[in-house]
Amino acid sequence: MKYKVFNYITVFFSLALVTTSCVDNEDLNQVDPNVETAGSFWKTDQDAIEGVNAAYGSLLTDGTYMRSTPLLLDLKGDDTRSNSPWGAMYNVGRFNSNPTDPAIYGWAFETYYQGIYRANQVLTNVPEIQFEDAALKNRILGQAYFLRGLYFFHAVNMFKNVPLPTEIKLYTPQKTEAEGWAQVIADFKAAAELLPTSYDAITGIDKGQKGRATKGAALGYLGKAYLFTKDFANAKTTFKQVIDLGVYSLVSNYRDNFTTTNENNSESLFEVQFSRDAGGVDLGWGGAPASGWGKTSARAITYAPRAFGWTDVQPSWTLFNEYQQEKTKTNAVDPRLDATIFYNKPGGMQLYGKDFATFYATSPADLNDIFCRKYQNSDGQFADEYDWRSGINERLLRYADILLMYAETLNETGDTPGAYTYIQMVRNRVNLPDLATAKPGMNQAQMRDQIGHERFLEFPLEGHRFDDIRRWGWLQDATKLAWLKTRDVEFNSYAPGREYFPIPQLEMDNNPGTKQNDSY
């Protein structure tokens, strides 16, 4: 789906200076006939589609998936490290974001609420539009609920106590974390009721369009919200609903989830659509989309190996070493290592058409270092990432995640033996041995640790690891926290409360009564 640009809620008032007669105040307010207003815009089904497209547009900016949100999700985990020269980025993984400097985390906060506002525009105005196709109307409303739920999900998950605007008004008070999760759940429930399983078999102007939210995406995120709030019974039921849809499966090549090859594949429940061919050349740093936007991602250049981009994010050595703890059935290294990390591999490894060992031969520090491979345009078709224009879609939710989260809910609800089946489905793709044979009869606590290990190797650099660490309570467990410190020295900077980002100062100043998060 290509995102269009719409400017439809700006109203200009013309004031006429009248000196020869008396006029009423309302006569002074004139709508510019050349400018579309909220009152004149929401009239047709095409207007409704364009309105919800604008809500998708907030996924493309620097604050969200162009760059900032992946950074905020990745850098606090033990799968990554950063030596970025930019303090705002460097300090994310060290739990030291500055409340007075909103760079990166503040941009994310702002953009989530931009997306929420746009979704609220749809949910407020579309019900009043007369549609010939009621199913189309439901799909548009379902997408708006999904997108609002997704933006709320990020806001609550990263900032804890946040406003929860569900209608269009100037001020919305800060709410509790529990209230936030309740709203997230309500939105995803509403979305799941209204959305189709796919857009291929429908009729309407959105037929066949890739990238729009589906029932599976809404159920997947609903299950995540239940899981994050430890409602394991409802999470289990919801994940099973996704599985029972029968439309998702793991792709055979793990790496196809992180390149332009095979985008929107059978494993993808929801991904943000980026394209080098979408038109425009400007980067979407923020604000309303402009006609010159390229709809491209800056993740690749930010995470790229040395000399091919900025190398602001690198994998941790803990991740590199953990990939080699268990060999495949043919005694090979877990193939996810090569799909995730560039390194000086015996026998050679190619990056951007260059041999790793040859390219870094004169730089021993780089030759003996490791770099990110996921989400890199590094297969030889491009020389580097310095054009800032990656077209790789950001995969937000994969079926592998559904399978491992379902296994987790089985374990947490007393069916530890049942968890083996769904874990093994993910292991089978990379030819790892049967877990039931390798580690038979695990108890619930042992299975929890095993699921932690499985998720660590399946989802690094995908924004899941720190979410897992936080929701599992490892930061409040002295033993687990000490273990994390041995794996990633950045955890030595952790202080209670710093698992969340600060509320941006601008929000504190502009929204009366807002309280800062603990520890800031």
From TrEMBL:
Keywords: Cell outer membrane, Membrane, Signal. The keyword Signal applies. InterPro entries: SusD-like_N, SusD_RagB_dom, TPR-like_helical_dom_sf. It holds the Pfam family SusD_RagB. Residues 267-520 form the RagB/SusD domain. Belongs to the SusD family. This is RagB/SusD family nutrient uptake outer membrane protein. It comes from Flavobacterium resistens. The lineage of its organism: Bacteria, Pseudomonadati, Bacteroidota, Flavobacteriia, Flavobacteriales.
